[in-house]
Structures are given as structure tokens and as C-alpha cells.
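B., you asked whether I could sanity-check this one before it goes into the benchmark set. Here's the sequence:
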Amino acid sequence: MMTPEGLSALEQLNEMRLTEDERAATLSIFRDMEAHEAALGAIPTDDVEVMVHVMPLTNILRDDVQEQPFTRESLLEGAPEHTDDSWQVPRLVK
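And here's what the prediction gave me:
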């Protein structure tokens, strides 16, 4: 349960300062959340099947097939300068 001391620790951890009205509102929000959590925890779920996703998922991506779409020669044709098998780029560091 969130206590005023716990809220003070959160303020210090997050390097923030709350006014008294903000503290009261924040504590109220945390208490409401804890009440909702307790209500959900009271629901019997022993007969519910464990699931990862609510909806069934289907992979719509293509199969990963290794292929060589370009030849080395066609790639070298686009190079401003090249040797027999490599692009030549200007030196950046002297």
C-alpha cells in the first residue's frame, strides 16, 4: 500500500517536489489503483488457459530466402571509381 512515506521516497528518487494538494491527489490515485488491483486479484482464474496474445497471430512476412539480386559487375558499374573488385572511396583521414 502506498504510504505518505513511500510517496516521499518517490519524490526524492525522482527529484521532484509536490504540494500538499498534489500529494493528496497522488496518494488517492495510488490507493484507487491498489483497490482495482485487489479486485482483479480476487477473480478466480484457475480454470483460465494461459495465453500470450489475446488474438491469434499469423506471420505475414515472406520466407527468408538467401539470394544474390545483383552481380558484382553491375554494382561496380555504379561506382565513380573502382578497382577490379572493389569501390574506391576518397580518403577521409590523413
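One thing to flag: The mean pLDDT is 88. Otherwise nothing jumped out at me.
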